[in-house]
Amino acid sequence: MIGFKIILLAGFGLVLPAAVLTAPQRSTDQPVRPGSYSGTNGHLMVVLPGGEFHMGSPTTERGRTADETQHRVRIPRTYAIATTETTNEQFARFLAAVPDYAARWKTATAARFGDPPRFAQYSRTPDSPQVGVSWYDAARYCNWLSEQAGVPRTQWVYPDQIDSEQGIDLPADYLHRSGFRLPTEAEWEYAARAGTTTSRHFGDDDRLLSKYAWYDGDTNRERAYPVGQLLPNQWGLFDMLGNVWEWTLDRRQSYPSDERITDDVEDSMLHVSNDMARTRRGGSFAYEWFTVRSAHRGDVTYFPNQTRDGVGFRVARTMP
Fold first, then answer.
1. What φ, ψ does residue 49 adopt, rounded to 5°?
2. Degrees (nearest 5) of the Cα angle 142, 6, 249?
3. Given this model, what pLDDT does residue 258 score?
4. pTM beyond 0.85, yes or no
5. How many whole angstroms separate alpha carbon 138 and alpha carbon 315?
6. CATH topology of domain 1-18+33-320
7. With contact defined as beta carbons under 8 Å apart, do 234 and 196 qualify?
8. CA distance 71 to 120
9. Which of 41, 42, 23, 4 is nearest to 232 (CA)?
């Protein structure tokens, strides 16, 4: 396993603007002090020690939907998550390194989006988020990152052979493995909230959205923008809200309705199939204000073999 150095964000030179450093309502839990390291293929990773938080939204939250039942979740591991969404440039390096997969991906992309793909008008620059990728494409990219980082195959989260028609089986200990992967839905929301309990990490005031999120109120639904252009949240994460939807690891399930603490652990259903929806988070440049909230879950019909022109991903991993 290739080693790396974890350093505090303040020591890394990541400057958080003063407007970001205060949120109206914060959790009363012990404050999180994230670290960071420079990862494979240009991914800057923020390291979070996990912990407990309220996932979902209170019934009084503006714009909430019925599937956001608030409940207590514990993340029992330290994990890292990328500061930005995976870009066109980063994904292109993966395709160049894996030509057989690239040929299949480009053929499928042309059949779905045309040649050149029409999503190029929405994600126009090398540093804009990669879109038009299925859940399986994101998984294959994560395997490549693991390989580039020297992670042993016994620590990869996804199988070496990924069949987007038949689906895949995840290993029973996938959240204990140190390979790159998609964040779980709980990990994603925990990171998006950055210790806050308001509808967004900066509070509840919709007038501040344009400082932090690309959504239909400031994009006219025309395009996604280069990553990292707007202000980050308190933990140094950019575009957690808006720009493009982000795939997460989990299948779509209803939240618990009681007061017990739920541990974010491996799903007992390990098979990923195309008739069982997965989750996406964050909203996008083409969606309304109520979708760019920390608790918003998106639709219930996001199947892993689907590709759309406003959906991308960011990578994560369990820290060894």
1. -80, 5
2. 30
3. 85
4. yes
5. 8
6. paralog of FGE (formylglycine-generating enzyme) (3.90.1580)
7. yes
8. 39
9. 23
